[in-house]
Write a structure and sequence with these properties.
With 355 residues, the protein is of the alpha/beta class. Helix content is 36%, strand content 19%. It folds into 3 domains: 150 residues, 3-Layer(aba) Sandwich (Rossmann fold); 74 residues; 111 residues, Inorganic pyrophosphatase (Inorganic Pyrophosphatase). The structure holds magnesium ion (MG).
């Protein structure tokens, strides 16, 4: 688990498909059933092949069902019904194969309920999504359920997250969004000023997504600490003194920008600096040179966060101060600070309101 955010979480929003509802398992079970019942396959090898083909065709649900079933009809003469009829029956069939809420998700939701941290569900799709939530027995338990078709905005549009925050009555900065989709869940929620937890599902974080998740988990019960009543305690001890000292340091220092926004990274020619990058003149970092700074677009001149990096290969650790950066700019800087072996973590200043 990686944690790079320290704002206390007062509400949690879950994505539905492949976060609370195990669509992958439902689809796998449905595909095996469909291959036998509808495609007329009996040989296990043929069934396995058909299942693999169905999973590839489905593309995590992104392929329209009309296209999916038209393709299948060309391949399996056993399918006599037309593609539209097959597509219409699919939703109910998939729902029938949806497994119950998994143990890890159950433990987390029970723990949140036990300490009174409200949680909700925010999902793209139609009112059909509600049937999945019903099947998981979560309708009466969720503090809010927001479905894109009903609010007229789809993830990653920040509007759907803001609508959800308004319904749950908690400021975006204190909401944690938990989801499996890098762009729809993590990047979208980050743009809405929320904290993010990415359910990894054995994948690498995609390089093309500029946002970075605050937390990465392999199972939802890794978030049980949210309900232990201690989150943020250690970080709250005198943390403001740290930022005041950083403000003072920046106030008395001249900023020298040696790598302007858009210039090429000397070590990685395909990486461009997303913001102005430089150092505080006449300051001293642990490597003997000036303290590195990122300078963002906010008009207020103050330190809005810091990035700490460590590189085991180079045996090196560094601090980069973020000056006048929005949270999104901080995320871009963090991505740029995590090239090659180097790993970075974002410390975000609690009181800063830029969203
Ligand atoms: Mg999902």
């Amino acid at each position: 688990m990686t944690i790079s955010s320290r704002r206390p979480v007062r509400a949690v929003l879950f994505d539905l498909d492949n976060t609370l509802a195990d669509r992958d398992r439902a689809f796998l079970a449905w595909a095996g059933w469909f291959a036998q019942e509808h495609c007329g396959l009996v040989n296990q090898h043929e069934i396995d092949e058909a299942v693999a083909e169905l999973i590839a065709l489905d593309a995590d649900g992104r392929t329209s069902k009309d296209v999916l079933f038209s393709t299948l009809k060309d391949r399996y003469p056993h399918l006599t019904e037309d593609a539209t009829t097959l597509a219409a029956a699919f939703r109910a069939q998939l729902l029938g194969h949806l497994p119950p809420l998994d143990v890890a998700a159950s433990r987390l939701i029970d723990a949140l309920d036990a300490v009174g941290i409200p949680w909700g569900i925010v999902t793209n799709g139609s009112a059909d999504q509600l049937r999945k939530i019903e099947k998981l027995d979560l309708v009466a338990r969720a503090a809010c359920i927001v479905i894109s078709d009903e609010v007229g905005a789809r993830k990653p549009d920040p509007a759907i997250f803001h609508a959800t925050a308004a319904r749950i009555g908690i400021a975006p900065a204190h909401i944690l969004v938990v989801g499996d989709h890098p762009e729809a869940d993590v990047a979208g929620a980050a743009r809405a000023g929320m904290q993010t937890a990415w359910l990894r599902r054995e994948r690498e974080w995609p390089a093309h997504v500029a946002a970075v998740p605050d937390i990465i988990v392999d199972a939802l019960d890794e978030l049980l600490w949210l309900a232990d009543g201690k989150q943020g305690e250690a970080a709250d001890i005198d943390s403001e003194r740290f930022w005041q000292q950083a403000d003072e340091l920046v106030a008395v220092s001249e900023i020298s920008i040696d790598r302007p926004q858009g210039s090429t990274h000397p070590g990685y020619p395909d990486v461009r600096y997303p913001l102005d990058y430089g150092f505080l003149a006449q300051s001293r970092a642990s490597d003997g040179s000036g303290i590195d700074v990122w300078v963002g677009s906010l008009s207020e001149h103050r330190v809005t966060g810091a990035i700490v990096t460590v590189d085991a290969l180079k045996r090196d650790a560094e601090v980069n101060l973020l000056i006048s950066c929005t949270y999104e700019e901080a995320a871009q800087a963090l991505t740029c600070n995590t090239q090659g072996q180097q790993a970075g973590i974002l410390l975000w200043r609690d009181d800063h309101q830029d969203v």
